[in-house]
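Hi D.,

Good news: the full-assembly prediction came through. Inputs first.
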Amino acid sequence: MPVPPEQGMKKELKRQQYLDLYYYMRLNRAVEDMMVKLFRQNKIVGGLYSSLGQEAISVGTAYALEKKDWLAPMIRNIGALLVKGVRPRDIFMQHMAKYDSPTKGKDGTSHFGDLDDLHIVSPISMLGDLIPVMTGVAMAGRYLGQKIVTMTWIGDGGSSTGVFHEGLNFAATQKAPFVLILENNLWAYSTPVRKQVPLENLADRAKAYGIDSYIVDGNDVVAVYSVAKEAVDRARAGEGPILIEAKSFRRMGHAQHDPAEYVPKEMRAYWEARDPIALYERFLSSEKLLDAKSKKEVEEKIDSLLAAEREFAENSPMPPPELAETGVYCTGDDCHKIRAKWERPIAEVTPPRSSVKAVWTVPGFGSGKASDGANAPIHFGDTHASQHRVGNDTKSANGGKPAAKMAAKAAPKKTVKTAGASRKARR
Amino acid sequence: MPKANGAGPNGSASDGTQVTFLEAIKQAMFEEMERDPAVILMGEDVGVYGGAFKTSEGLLERFGWERVIDTPISESAIIGAACGMSYCGLRPICEMQFIDFIVCAFNQITNFVAKGHYLWNAPAPMVIRGPSGGGVHGGPFHSANPEMYFVHTPGVKVIYPSTPYDAKGLLKAAVRDNNPVLFFEHKFLYRRIKGEVPAGDYTVPIGKAVVRREGKHLTIISYAAMMHASLEAAEALAKEGIEAEVIDLRTLLPLDEETILNSVKKTNKCLVVHEDTRTGGIAGEIAAILFEKAFHDLDGPLVRVTSLDTPVPYAPTLEEHFLPNAKKVFSAAKELARY
Ligand SMILES: Cc1ncc(C[n+]2csc(CCOP(=O)(O)OP(=O)(O)O)c2C)c(N)n1
Ligand SMILES: [Mg+2]
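Then the structure:
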């Protein structure tokens, strides 16, 4: 069983940052505890997922983002939503299918977003789909000159979907400012990670795309934040995308209905003893950042906040039935004004400044241009007469050099780029 | 195969020039990218090469690497990334090298792109376009008409034009629409069909069918390449004294019920022609609409002329048997006219 070694938390943040991380982890847990109560009272319409024991990952990673940055949560990332500014009432109402919820009862759980203000993209249930979407947000942000970073999460199981690979590969070819957090909690529903992925470290997935990756103890919030901050900074500087594997454990069943008896007792006990909040409290008090009094203040603040949020949520009505008929299409400018927020001169991306020579340049071999339209093999089996233009300007992509020679020349260059351990393992 | 029936939406002449179907699509993309820097193009081999069918030739040259993006062979990634871009106010156009490959991104389209506005009020203005259809011996994986998978998907719009005028005007409308739009380009028409397009900017409204030929004895409803087979059949029918009204659907979702109903209430008979396979094709949907809303106006059965319920076969003899054509439309219509 791959277990990250115990490590002493490092003191390198500002006091307020330590306290923020603590507050959000406690809030994350308290919101979920309250939802378990609501679930037992039959007030939650659908399923309820838990991130118990993984709070340090959601909170530590999202805390590394700036306000202008974009994120998209998965089911166990309530903590990331809270850090980004989502109100607990919205999370309660989503689960309770209330009319005042962000989706007005049309969807549940963390399936909601906010394009204009908080910059949150709603997930869908299909695992992995957010990876190309957040790649696209990252590409658009770069195109518009916004200097943003995008972030999403994926599970150990979700990293086996096709779209994970398509998305990360595309992000890599585009050098998109995108950070992907791979939450390895050792289980995907009832299936252990070794049956999902034949790798000791899921961060090794990154090698296939020639991108950098980190491994971090997902129960150490300071380590998670530090790694995420470095990754976010590097992605913003144009070194993205970056993959972070956070190693942790899913303490509850897949969802409320699942008692998870397939998980060995000893394994659960091991991880319960490494509770991320308890570990962090020990660290904070040893560093004199938290005492009994300030801890109590945090608890009281959260208790009174959540009591009010819960009351608001419970008082919200169910959506009127006819609402089901509305909103399939955007009906135009009255519905949404779609405007790109340019933060660079538009002249840079419009002719004449955008105009280029449409050629591929192969290092060491010069350029080749496309054949023109007359040569397009359009009609299969059609007698369409395509004339082959013969002229000096028709060059093949490798400048006429034999393929073997080209491969021999190109190969060393490629190995230089991908060889060596580009992955930085932080332990 | 006749030329497109005039240039304008009703066959009216315009002062533009004759261009191929393919050229019309290229012009639409060029002009939209010129008009709005939020419009970008993404797809496999769309940049330096100019697209497998050369529909994007010259775009990279003019608009540069940031706006004309050669992607890996990853349809889900292309559609997914376009969706993310659309959330930031861009209006991406995604090319599927052949529309057959659109199903590789089926989940991204039907679950992510299509549901966003309904569920969380997130518009996704984007166009997914690509060469579709048979008749060019492309075989079972390069001849698809997958429109009905998506006509069954609330949240997207589906366009399938038959003339250069409509192709250009509808593609421009698709780029400007705030919803995800699927735009099917029948590759048989790419270079075979020429028509006039006006010199200036224009759009063709999404969701509006057009009467290509007026008639009183029966209504033939079709779209895309089969539009031309239907018009050819209508000419032949006229020589036998049967005046067929021919409707070009142009948009399949949303479907223009009004134009369909107005025509059938006049002619009292309806024939639907589509190159898509028979079961689950749009003809079934039209039949349901007529039963619901024009039951008492019908003087005969609804007749379908469609492809067979098989994959598209490769050999010319097989493909010809598989596809509808003007002759098949002619005999079916003659039969229907007898009622
Ligand atoms: C593409 C896809 N297939 C199946 C499912 C059903 N499903 C939901 S969560 C889950 C397990 C996910 O495991 P993992 O990715 O490790 O995330 P975790 O639950 O451990 O956070 C499965 C199989 C899904 N949501 N999406
Ligand atoms: Mg897991």
